[in-house]
Known about the structure:
- The complex is a heterodimer of chains A (146) and B (192).
- Chain A is mainly α.
- Helix content of chain A is 81%, strand content 0%.
- The longest helix of chain A has 42 residues.
- The two termini of chain A are 47 Å apart.
- Chain B is built from 8 helices and no strands.
- Chain B has 192 residues and is mainly α.
- Chain B is globular.
- Chain B has 2 domains: 112 residues, no CATH class; 56 residues.
- At the A-B interface, α1, α2 and α3 of A face α2, α3, α4, α5 and α6 of B.
Amino acid sequence: xxxxxxxxxxxxxxxAASLVDDILRMTDEEILAEVAADGxxxxxxxxxxxxxxxxxxxxxxxxxxxxAKKAVLSDRQQGSKVLRLDPGTARQRLENILRQHxxxxxxxxxxxxxxxxxxxSDVLSMLEDxxxxxxxxxxxxxxxxx
Amino acid sequence: MAPNExxxxxxxxxxxxxxxxxxxxxxxxxxxxxxxxxxxxxTIKADDLLQEACRRALDGSRRCPRNLDLFExxxxxxxxxxxxxxxxxxxxxxxxxxxxxxxxxxxxxxxxEQPSAEDAxxxxxxxxxxxxxxxxxxxxxxxxxxxxxxxMEGMDGEELRAFTELDKTAFASKRRLIKRRIEKxxxxxxxP
Lengths: 146, 192
């Protein structure tokens, strides 16, 4: 349920909006003259306001970095699912996939086709590549982890 | 752009940042004045209000229509933040933003959507107190006080002028007096 705004709240809000309208209608010269009439330094006030803006820029930059870091970590966690396979299972899995996808098998080098000379990390890397290329689905990769 | 392709409706965050960086001194002072007005009639510090408005504009959480004046856009954003803050007062005493220079992030916390009955009562009392403080500023000037009350009731323009029975020159002068007196009343940008 949304609470109805009080009359006092509406009164203050209207007054603020009206005063801000007056500020928006003022020319730059009138703004500067008003500050000078108050004995204040326009340069200093402007500098302070710009400093506040720069702090906002910094906050936004940090937020963007945090979001990017989170995305990278998330990607790494997804990739590590395949890397957690034990070498024997991974090798077996690669052989099965190549048997089921002869067109892919034909594109590989002779050594890769037979699995000869491939290190464990080569096998895992190939599984990851096949996953990224869409030859095996994410579900297949997840099934391997179970 | 193709002839029938619709124009982009909103400024990008990069456009907003570039427009702000290009502001002259008077532009920054204008923004500062606007933040002080909304801060005076709310309970948030003016600097925090301006910073939060800039942040929302720069991270795209508030979007600026291309046909809207940048000051009106940021003023509207500040108005919205001040409104939320006023309603959240007392429930979030740590609302003031912490400088990132100290290694801390912005601690602004949006208000709860549904305040408790007790919170609502406290908020109402705070709003009433601020309103009374504003009206007391014009105790010595009955015409100005009537004018402020008229604005608070939603009058503006010719209707307000007729209500005060002032000619155009005197009316404009009285408006300036009201603005100046409220601006000077609470230099910290926060009501007592």
